[in-house]
DNA sequence: CCATATGTTAAAAG
DNA sequence: ACTTTTAACATATG
């Protein structure tokens, strides 16, 4: 489920529940998720230290470590979640208040744990990721990430968004332009802004770009507050026979930016 | 078996 | 050379 809002929730969970706890052991044996580092390298870097801060830009998280240790980077990929447990093994859930993982969820099956930190107090932090597209590493390179979608300034947004002639949705999804927007948040934002996902960025005027940024900020804040991008107004209508929740027109499906795209062909122009 | 999936990125195409 | 699109990645699910 991870787009910017879900990642922010995961970051907040780490910040509130995983900091300043001594790390006793680390399982970094999944060489796909932890590539290209060899097994044991992340463990060697973390054991004996503590996480001291949890940061995020777009969908990338990183944690500073004590004693001038290296930075731990975490990316949830397409299906990753962060679970932190207290010393009694009880999960400290942030995240989706409606559909959050529960202690008895089948999603708890450890076969899908791709990376685990065991704290000296008995609790753990783990990356749970069925699809295995998440990534864990050390000292991440953030230079190829644009400014966070929730913090980018209007003037910067306009310049970055309007360069070139890609479809506006493809540009929203480009993490080097704006970091954090995924497929669902892009559809929600464009629907709120009443912009056709196909619109080439060079056809957007300043008014369009300001409307788009307002929609992006609102959709992002709302998704964080309500527990995820799937709580967006139009998301439930992204399906065959779905209808625009504003005007009732049948939703249209297309591929834009390489991703399945749903939009209202009447209102989004 | 086929299609689809909330992400990233190397390779190909333009 | 730079920008944009496609394909592939690993895995689960309908």
From TrEMBL:
Substrates-to-products reaction catalysed: Hydrolysis of DNA containing ring-opened 7-methylguanine residues, releasing 2,6-diamino-4-hydroxy-5-(N-methyl)formamidopyrimidine
Protein keywords: DNA damage, DNA repair, DNA-binding, Glycosidase, Hydrolase, Lyase, Metal-binding, Multifunctional enzyme, Zinc, Zinc-finger
GO molecular function: damaged DNA binding; DNA-(apurinic or apyrimidinic site) endonuclease activity; lyase activity; oxidized purine nucleobase lesion DNA N-glycosylase activity; zinc ion binding
Gene3D superfamilies (alphabetical): 1.10.8.50, MutM-like, N-terminal
Residue span, Formamidopyrimidine-DNA glycosylase catalytic domain: 2-134
Family: Belongs to the FPG family.
Protein name: Formamidopyrimidine-DNA glycosylase
Provenance organism: Nocardioides currus
Taxonomic classification: Bacteria, Bacillati, Actinomycetota, Actinomycetes, Propionibacteriales
């Amino acid at each position: 489920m991870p787009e910017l809002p879900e990642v922010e929730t995961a970051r907040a969970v780490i910040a509130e529940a995983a900091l300043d706890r001594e790390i006793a052991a680390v399982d970094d044996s999944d060489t796909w998720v932890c590539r290209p580092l060899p097994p044991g390298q992340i463990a060697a870097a973390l054991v004996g230290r503590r996480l001291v801060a949890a940061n995020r830009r777009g969908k990338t998280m990183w944690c500073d470590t004590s004693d001038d240790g290296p930075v731990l980077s975490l990316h949830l990929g397409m299906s990753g979640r962060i679970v932190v447990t207290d010393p009694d093994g009880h999960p400290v859930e942030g995240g989706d208040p409606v559909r959050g993982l529960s202690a008895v969820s089948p999603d708890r099956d450890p076969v899908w744990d791709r990376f685990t930190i065991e704290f000296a107090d008995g609790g753990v932090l783990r990356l749970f990721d069925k699809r295995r597209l998440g990534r864990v590493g050390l000292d991440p390179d953030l230079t190829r990430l644009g400014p966070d979608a929730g913090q980018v300034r209007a003037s910067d947004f306009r310049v970055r968004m309007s360069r070139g002639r890609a479809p506006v949705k493809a540009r929203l999804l480009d993490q080097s332009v704006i970091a954090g927007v995924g497929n669902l948040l892009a559809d929600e934002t464009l629907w709120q802004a009443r912009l056709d996902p196909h619109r080439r960025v060079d056809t957007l005027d300043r008014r369009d770009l300001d409307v788009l940024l307002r929609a992006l900020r609102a959709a992002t804040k709302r998704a964080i507050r309500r527990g995820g991008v799937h709580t967006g107004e139009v998301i439930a209508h992204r399906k065959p026979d779905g209808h625009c929740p504003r005007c009732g027109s049948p939703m249209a499906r297309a591929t834009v930016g390489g991703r399945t795209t749903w939009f209202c062909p009447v209102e989004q122009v």
